[in-house]
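Below is how a single chain appears once it has passed through the pipeline. First comes the sequence as given, then the structure the pipeline wrote out for it. We keep one example in the README because the format questions we get most often are answered faster by looking than by reading.
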Amino acid sequence: MSRIIIIHSYSWEDKDIFQAILMSSGCPPQSPAVAKSEVTVEGECPLLAATFAYWDNILGPRVRHIWTPKGDQSMFLSDGEVTFLANHTLNGEILRSAECGAVDVKFFVLAEKGVIIVSLIFDGELKGDKNTCALSVILPQTELAFYLPLHTICVERLKHVIRKGRIWMQKIKDTVLNDDDIGDSCHEDFLHKAISSHLQTCGCSIVVGSNPEKVNKIVRTLCLFLTPAERKCSRLCKADSSFKYDTGLFVQGLLKDSTGSFVLPFRQVLYSPYPTTHIDVDINTVKQMPPCHEHTYNQRRYMHSELSALWKTDSEEDIPPETVIHTDETFTPDLNIFQDVMHKDTLVKSFIDEVFMLKPGLSLRSTYLAQFLLLLHRKALTLLKYIEDETQKGKKPFRSLRNLKTDLDLTVEGDLNIVMAFAEKLRAGLHSFVFGKPFYTSLQERDVLMSF
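Resulting structure:
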């Protein structure tokens, strides 16, 4: 039912819109500023803005995202004014009683602001709870005569966007952290190892298996520990496609072939910016590449060998892949680059033990996850500050790993690796600086650490 209210006082991609809204909920708390995007629109655009708002039981109406057309506008509204207008769309909706899936339409004409607002009110899953939401478009009042004949068409199209958006809202719940019990979808030790290794390898993981639903559930779970930007550089697997491994993605799901096997290309994996965790959901195994400094060393040596081989030949096609590896006689990389996860941690173990004590559903658990990620971020910043002070901002070599581990409560190797990985993404090259010679193998590194 449409409601027209006269007040005399005071190709956006729908999937991307709703994923941007929802996936950000698993990250450290956002700043109070409302997220805003400028959208390039071909031709003349009568819209001033579009908004997504929801009802918060504590804070009332809240605007989650604002979209505005890119370019010059004859009429300009500040973000504060857009937020003020969007809040009007949810006022009075706290007691909304509608059947599941119903969409109500509200039509505002705000004479003093010189705008009209078309709002669609609906129920959706946000942060694991049902919320009253509003998707609104704001136009100048001068466009009223132009818009009214198009009202029915616009509303029907926006309703379809909302129907698809509600599906995306529901799908986000399909993670291990939303299960009633950790045993619902995977064994506790497997989940612990997967998340721990995922964090130790800077949030880069490959998830392989025969069942796409099982693979994607782990992919979505690991994506909860990434930033929104990193999630955009991640990929689910699809049952009807033949996705291959892509260098540079953070998390990617890959399906095994009909024989139940999957072969990773050595070169592409080695050329990834960060080391990678390999997770097999069929047999519940977790393996990881060596730490950042060793990964970077092997990567550069292999690249040098590849370029040297190319220099000696007329065509890149003349170089067999196995020849590149042995071009540099001093470089003999281990082709079995994935190793068992050697170091236990207490940070992820405590998180998993405690998060499943909370009520099922992503409301409380997503908040707890955000606090956990914020804790790791602060530990990483503290570690960087500690090393800066100890080395006079890099003027002196770092000599006191044992003191660092004690002072920062990182005596457990897995905890140190996780915080170091977070810090590496904040300050590239940290591993090589801390561990001295970057060509330590992982075994040598363990021997060095054991001696402290």
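Residues 2-171 form one domain.

See the next section for the split statistics.
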